[in-house]
Structures are given as structure tokens and as C-alpha cells.
Backbone:
């Protein structure tokens, strides 16, 4: 049966042709009804071929399964006749084999115990030898090695005891010296700890002050930005209103100019008051006030791109200078 050729009613060439035909099909979206129908049609063709192959497989395998059952049944019958004979012979053979193994294991156990006792006795006097060397040693040789090892062990132990006594005396002296050194170190560490805690407290206080100043500066920067944004929005609204109604634009212009004058007068008054207060303040505060005053300067409205880039570069440089003034002023 191994030499028979299994044939199905479909060839590799046909499968390759269907692969080329269907593997490129795709459904592009939920609305691609034509693509969906093409994919569905192709799948049904492939499914039909698969069902045909499965049906043919079952037909071809049915006779093979029947023959296999007959072969297994006959083999099982023959095994049933041979098994009692083989089991009897195996049992007779095992009786001798297992007894030999038991005798050999007992001899090995006794020899291992004797060798292990020799190794333990030698180890008790700090002698380590390979298991095989000790196991093959005669009783006379073993006794000679053991007695020599005991003598060396006792001699060495006496020498070590004398050395330990001398070393203990030296160590006792070193312990006393180390205790004194540790006492001095502990005192120094305590002083260093106290100093460190003082420095930490001062640093925490400085950090809190710096954090408060940074928060105040950020608030002012945010207010300045919001003020500038509001101003730009107002100007745009005014420009839009001017396009719609010219008369309203003229009236709005008058209102803006009036507010500008009032604002200028108010700012000049506030600036004069700041100058008066600044003259009374220490140099540190004067520098900080000068920096804040420069921060409040409103940049001009520009239309040219190159001019805007120049203004942005200059504004960044001024802002960095003002940060340096603020930082250095705080160090005064």
C-alpha cells in the first residue's frame, strides 16, 4: 500500500492558478460591495474544492482503516500467545540477576562505609584525600597515614594556640585604640551633622524665598502677556468696526485717543511714583525695579517678516539680560 499513489481531483497547477486569481482580491471599505461579492464568490469556490478533497480523503481512507484493524487484531492474538512464555523466562532470569545485584550492592555499601569512616577520621585531623586513594589503601598503610596525620595535627594545633594567644593580646590593644578612634569620629560626625542641619535649614529658607520670587515674576509675566493679548484683540475689534461703519470708526478713534491720553497720563503718574519709590529703595531693589520696568515696555506692532525676526531676537536678548540683572541683584 505504501507504493500506491494518492490522487485527488485537483492538481497543484490548478491550486497555483486559483492562488494567482484570488490572493490579490481585497475589500477596500464597508461600501465596497463589488469587492465584497468578488471575495465571497472566490471563497465559495475554494471551499467547494476543499469539501471535494475531504470527501475523496474519507473514501480513500475507509478501505485502509479496515485492513489496519485486521492487521492489529492478528498481531494482538499472536502477542497473547507469546507473552506468557516471555514473562516466565524473564522472571527466571530476573531471580538470578537481581540476587547478584543485591550481593554486589551490599558489598559496595560495606566498602563505602569503611572508606567513609577513613575519610572522616582523616578529615578530623585536617587531612583531605581522594575517595579512590583511601578506598584502595591497605589497613597497614592507612594506619601509618592516620598516625602521622594525628601527630602533625596535634603539633600544629599547639602552635596555632600559642599564635592565637599572642594575636589576641595584640587585637585587644587594637580594639581599645579603635574604640578611642571611633569615639573621636562619632563626636566629629555629630558636629558635622549639626552643621549640615543648619545649612539645610538656611538652604530651605533661601529656596522658599526664591520660589516665592519666581512665582511673583511668573505671575507678572503672565499678566503682561494677557494684557498684550487683550490689547491686540481690542485693536482688531476696533479695526473691524471701522471697516463696517466709518462714522462709528471716527467716534471710536476719538474714544481710543482719549483713553490713550488717560492711560498715558496714568502711566506717567505711576512711573513718576515708581521713580520716587525707587529713589528711596536700596540698590538691590532699584535694580529689580529697573528690570520690571523694562519688562513692561510694550513691543511695537510690525508687519514685515524680517523686522519681526529682528524684534524677536532683540526681545529674547533683552529678556536674558533682565534675568541676569534679577539674578545678580538678588546676590547683593
Residues:
Amino acid at each position: 500500500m505504501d507504493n500506491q499513489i494518492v490522487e485527488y481531483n485537483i492538481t497543484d497547477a490548478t491550486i497555483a492558478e486559483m492562488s494567482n486569481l484570488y490572493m490579490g482580491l481585497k475589500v477596500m471599505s464597508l461600501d465596497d460591495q463589488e469587492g465584497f461579492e468578488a471575495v465571497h464568490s472566490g471563497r465559495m469556490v475554494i471551499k467547494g474544492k476543499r469539501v471535494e478533497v475531504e470527501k475523496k480523503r474519507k473514501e480513500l481512507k475507509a478501505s485502509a482503516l479496515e485492513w489496519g484493524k485486521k492487521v492489529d487484531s492478528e498481531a494482538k492474538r499472536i502477542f497473547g500467545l507469546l507473552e506468557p512464555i516471555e514473562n516466565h523466562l524473564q522472571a527466571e532470569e530476573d531471580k538470578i540477576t537481581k540476587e547478584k545485584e543485591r550481593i554486589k550492592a551490599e558489598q559496595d555499601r560495606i566498602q563505602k562505609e569503611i572508606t567513609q569512616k577513613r575519610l572522616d577520621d582523616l578529615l578530623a585531623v585536617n587531612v583531605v584525600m581522594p575517595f579512590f586513594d583511601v578506598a584502595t589503601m591497605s589497613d597497614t598503610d592507612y594506619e601509618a597515614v592516620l598516625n602521622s596525620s594525628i601527630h602533625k595535627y596535634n603539633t600544629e594545633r599547639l602552635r596555632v594556640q600559642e599564635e592565637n594567644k599572642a594575636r589576641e593580646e595584640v587585637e585587644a590593644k587594637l580594639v581599645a585604640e579603635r574604640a578611642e578612634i571611633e569615639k573621636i569620629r562619632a563626636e566629629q560626625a555629630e558636629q558635622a551633622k549639626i552643621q549640615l542641619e543648619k545649612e539645610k535649614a538656611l538652604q530651605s529658607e533661601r529656596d522658599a524665598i526664591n520660589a516665592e520670587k519666581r512665582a511673583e515674576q511668573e505671575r507678572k509675566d503672565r499678566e503682561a502677556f494677557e494684557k498684550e493679548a487683550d490689547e491686540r484683540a481690542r485693536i482688531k475689534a476696533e479695526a473691524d468696526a471701522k471697516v463696517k461703519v466709518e462714522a462709528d470708526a471716527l467716534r471710536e478713534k476719538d474714544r481710543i485717543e482719549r483713553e490713550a491720553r488717560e492711560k498715558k497720563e496714568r502711566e506717567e503718574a505711576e512711573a513718576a511714583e515708581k521713580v520716587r519709590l525707587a529713589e528711596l529703595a536700596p540698590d538691590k531693589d532699584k535694580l529689580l525695579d529697573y528690570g520690571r520696568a523694562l519688562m513692561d515696555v510694550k513691543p511695537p506692532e510690525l508687519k514685515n517678516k524680517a523686522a519681526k525676526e529682528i524684534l524677536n531676537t532683540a526681545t529674547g536678548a533683552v529678556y536674558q539680560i533682565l534675568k541676569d540683572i534679577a539674578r545678580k541683584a538678588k546676590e547683593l
Summary: The helical segments are 12-22, 33-124, 131-135, 139-244, 246-280, 283-295, 305-330.
